[in-house]
Amino acid sequence: MALRQFGAAAAVTVALALATPAHAVTEIQWWHAMTGGNNDIVNKLAEEFNASQSDYKVVPTFKGSYADTMNAGIAAFRAGSAPHIMQVFEVGTATMMSATGAIKPVYQLMKDAGEPFDPKAYLPTITGYYSTSKGDMLSFPFNSSSMVMWINKDELKKAGVAEIPKTWPDVFAAAKKLKAAGHETCGFSNAWATWAHIEQFSAWHNVPIGTKANGLDGFDTVLTFNSPLHVKHLQNLIDLQKDKTYDYSGRENKSEARFASGECAIFLTSSGYYATAKSTAKFDFTSAPMPYYPDVAGAPQNSIIGGASLWVMGGKKPDEYKGVAKFFTFLSDTNRQAKLHQESGYLPITKAAYEKTKADGFYQKNPVPETPLKELTNKEPTENSRGLRFGNMVQMRDIWAEQIEAALAGQKTAQQALDDAVAKGNAMLRTFEKTAK
Amino acid sequence: MEKSVVFNNRLLPYLLLVPQLIITFVFFYWPASQAVWQSFLREDAFGLHSEFVALENYQSLFADPSYYKAMLVTVVFSSLVAALSLSIALLFATQADKNLKAAGAYKTLMIWPYAVAPAVAGVLWIFMFHPTLGTLARPLRWMNFDWNPLLNGNHAMALVVMAAVWKQISYNFLFFLAGLQSIPKSVLEAGAIDGAGPVRRFWTITFPLLSPTTFFLLVVNVVYVFFDTFGIIDAVTGGGPAGATTTMVYKVFADGRLGGDLGGSAAQSVILMIIVIALTAVQFKYIERKVQY
Questions:
Q1: Interval B64-94: pLDDT, tens
Q2: Is residue A268 a contact partner of residue A247, using CB atoms and an 8 Å limit?
Q3: Taking CB atoms and an 8 Å cutoff, what residues of chain B touch A398?
Q4: Which of A175, A310, A347, B129 could lock onto A140 through a cystine, CB 3.0 to 4.6 A?
Q5: In degrees, to the nearest 5, what angle opens at C-alpha A244 toward C-alphas A36 and A299?
Q6: CA of B104 to nearest chain A CA: how many angstroms apart?
Q7: What is the pLDDT of residues A100-110, one digit of tens each?
Q8: pTM as predicted
Q9: Where in the sequence is the domain holding B193, given as residue range(s)?
Q10: Cβ <8 Å between A98 and B44
Q11: CB distance B241–A431 less than 8 Å?
Q12: CATH number at A147-303+382-435
């Protein structure tokens, strides 16, 4: 063991001596899950930061899907070689939060490093998701998004749909027209099956997904998304799936290409799809707010965020933490945030960046990036629309999706599928409650 | 009369065994015992706190209907993959064993897929059979066949079986070919002289003489389907739709890695281990009797 440590130390020393003969640069490992246009943005951010100063070097590494990245980080932590910064998607928040000791809370990090940090400068709809009930920010919001409805304007025009649909009945009608006009395999579709039809759907209609403010107020939450409204919506999807007026596109976002290829002219997915849509869609497209059922009182409410935040892992050296803190300050810069928002379609995380983008008149020319902001700020959030925090959410989504798949394939009724999803989910929540004491 | 050398040193045989024993212990018994131990614990994903819960993980496992479903899926999946990959490889090997012009090239090409990583193999098959993007899915659609592995469990199963079989054929081919080449030609010629046709010769001479190879491959293939196919499943279907392709080993991976439920996942791997040990024992006890060495 001692010999191995010596060997490793010697190797590191040699490597450092070779790489940086004059100046010792502290490396900061950043594991992320950004693909396509957003991967370029991550690399550019790191390059810019590295060029802006000479003490720290941020090294971004792509680790696969969100779930892959999180698991790679957890495995690395157990092996004692965690990265400094790890990008974790919003549904991993409960797991990360309960891992006291494995993480370094961001508010603590900024305080220790003496970096200027005002939590009030950030948009509350976003930071609320990543803060304790006392308002201490635990992770740094990086790419926040919400779900929007992407519209292929050319195809809608061809099919004779004059207006962009606003409600679910409108969407169903438009999808039937699209199907009649040649979109035989897909009237409309969506990525992130459970995010669309359970999580966002509930917040947007101001109905709970679970008790205790969707778990934000405690791990002893119980799922309740088998309400008549949820059943009605799933039943509609089941009916439309039969002739592909609605066509299921899987649990994740692998099928987003169905929008860019022109196959699906109405497609619900993350607002963060903007960068990829810009570079791959060869037609006139836009985004619109998610549809709602007009007969539900108070709908639409407000949407909830998705995307990911940056978690700082525990057990690193103070100097390395200083570098991480400096990097976060760099990311919070108003101009940089405004630019990031305008290029990627992800939300600006500071109020100043949002105001600046508005003041610049950016949204008049580019309405697309403002859609998710309009959804998020549509109304004052309620207990049902502040966000959600369920333990084991990564696998929970799979379990919910399994039930939706079974229902769409005609193996179960809508009611049965949602009842089973709730029952299985609750069993998982109880296991998590026991481990996260 | 018989000349035998006797080593009087009692320590020497043990010393000679030590390297092998160390390797077996460090790489097999140690991890296996860790898994057994972990299956009695409840632990969070980061390993920050753990608690001894005795058999609770096993109890909740056997109370879960989806675990029985995974068992059924495993039986279907493994019998399909083992049967198909063995029979197709045997067919190819018998064909390649003939005097062909380009036999060398043919054999090399047959062995290639083995060098492809499981996940890559999975991705290749996705590209061919993706309902909307796939090159081979399009002709299916022209024939008005509603190919949809995203929702139809049988289609998804067919897809992972094809990918897993394709991946394993090369390996089986290689061993069958070697087995065929070691069968003495004189025996076959004798059969031919006695008036047996090619089919008869195959079933009465070649196949029985090949039985040691077939038996070995059967054991190896069963282990392959049980443990090495989750890369393909993960890339192609992610266990879906609705758990139609969630085999037992994929469930171990999904619960432990995606769900962070290490105790439950360890309990599943212990059960899996017991099943495979039992299966191998049965194979050796009953099927090996029919093997003619």
A1: 888 899 999 999 999 999 999 999 999 998 8
A2: no
A3: 238-239, 254, 258
A4: A310
A5: 75
A6: 40
A7: 888 999 999 99
A8: 0.80
A9: 64-290
A10: yes
A11: no
A12: 3.40.190.10
